[in-house]
Amino acid sequence: MSTATPTAPTTAPPPPPTTGDRVRKLLQARETGIVLAFLAVLAVTTAINPSFLFSKDGWRDLFLTPSILVVLAVGQAIVIITRNVDLSVGSILGLVAYATGRMFVDTGLPILVVLLLGVLFGVVLGLINGALVAFAKVPALVITLGTLYVYRGVMMSWAGSDRINASDIPSGLLSFGTSSILWIPSLAWISFIVLAIGAYLMGRTRGGREMYAIGSDPDAATLYGLKKTKRTLVAFAASGGLAGLAGVLYVARYGTISSGAGLGIEFEAVGAAVIGGVAIFGGSGTVLGAAVGAYLLMTINRGLPILGIQDFWQRAVVGLLIIVAIVLDKVLKDRQHKKLLAERDAE
Fold first, then answer.
1. Which residues does 109 contact at the CB level (< 8 Å), separation at least 6?
2. How far apart (Å, rounded) are the C-alpha atoms in residues 305 and 321?
3. Whose CA is closest to 109, among 167, 170, 158?
4. What is the pLDDT of residues 92-101, one digit of tens each?
5. Phi, psi for 185 (deg, rounded to 5)
6. Per-domain residue ranges of the chain
7. What is the pLDDT of residue 6?
């Protein structure tokens, strides 16, 4: 006499998300709000001055002006996601830009070799930051504030009152800096490629997911066995390498490099990332949001003078956006924490 073998109850798989669910999730995303703010600024400014967008220079500047900041913001987002910050990217940009110019003047190396060496130089400078943060256990804010001045001091000592002129830069590189592909500046295409690679690596790879985990809870990540030191080094190396790439793009766009190159742009990079929804406390946000934040910042900087707003108030508006973004992130984080506690108590 055979007995039936009891079978474990099966759980029905969750229903696939509906179109309404997808739309609701899209509307709730932080990046959606930043995109809408960007479009609103663009629409208002264009309505007042149609040439802001509907002109050859206006269309070009819409993509060209933020291109270097987008590259920096992607690197900054990666570092902030790991619950760190890199304040030295402006100095790395300037130092790499000047070093690139000097190599063109003094060595006669091919353009591609010089550009690769410039990016590699940025990676090395970023690794110095990462090593000091990871091994010395000193907060990244302190370390990179120090290297901001160290790298800038090295550049000022090296450059002095000298500067690299456009006549010293190969015409091919300068032509690339002003060229366009499909009516979009070539430098903007470079920033799009950087953004796509950064988005893929942070969203679809194990290393990217581990960086989010480390930023969310460093202690838990360490207990879980994640390679916190390695990921910190990688994050700062990426930030340094992208700052080096930004320095190369700076040479291609402007041609003239002095000791003031990149001065203060590190704060714009942090601002772009934070305004774009990257949590300053780490663990959340996307490089896409940081890129949109860069576009919003640069569009505001270009658009407010058209609205007759003085320079002081332009900076105040940007500062206010940063404060609002940080406060909003804190409120959303606290709300999510309370929701998780309520769900746990209900079980």
1. 103, 117
2. 17
3. 170
4. 999 999 999 9
5. -55, 145
6. 46-310
7. 56
Average pLDDT, the chain: 88
Taking only the tens place, the pLDDT of each residue in 108-145 is: 899 999 999 999 999 999 999 999 999 998 999 999 99
Which residue carries 């838990």 as its tokens? 220
Whole-angstrom CA distances from 107 to 41, 111, 124, 129 are 46, 11, 21, 28
Token readout for 97 is 């830009």
Closest CA to 287 of 72, 140, 45, 126: 72
* CATH class of this structure's domain 46-310: mainly alpha
Query: What one-character DSSP code corresponds to residue 260?
Result: T
The amino acid that residue 304 corresponds to is L
Q: Which pairs from 180-183 meet CB under 8 Å and 24+ separation?
A: 180/60, 183/59
Indicate the residue type of 108. Answer: G
Whether the per-residue pLDDT at 19 is higher than 70: the answer is no
Strand, helix or coil at 239? Answer: helix
In the DSSP assignment, the letter for residue 2 is -
Whole-angstrom distance, CA of residue 299 vs CA of residue 63: 10
Average pLDDT of the segment spanning 229-238: 96
- What is the CA angle 34-189-168, rounded to 5? 120
Find all residues with CB under 8 Å of 66, minimum gap 6, and list them: 188, 191, 294, 295, 297, 298, 299
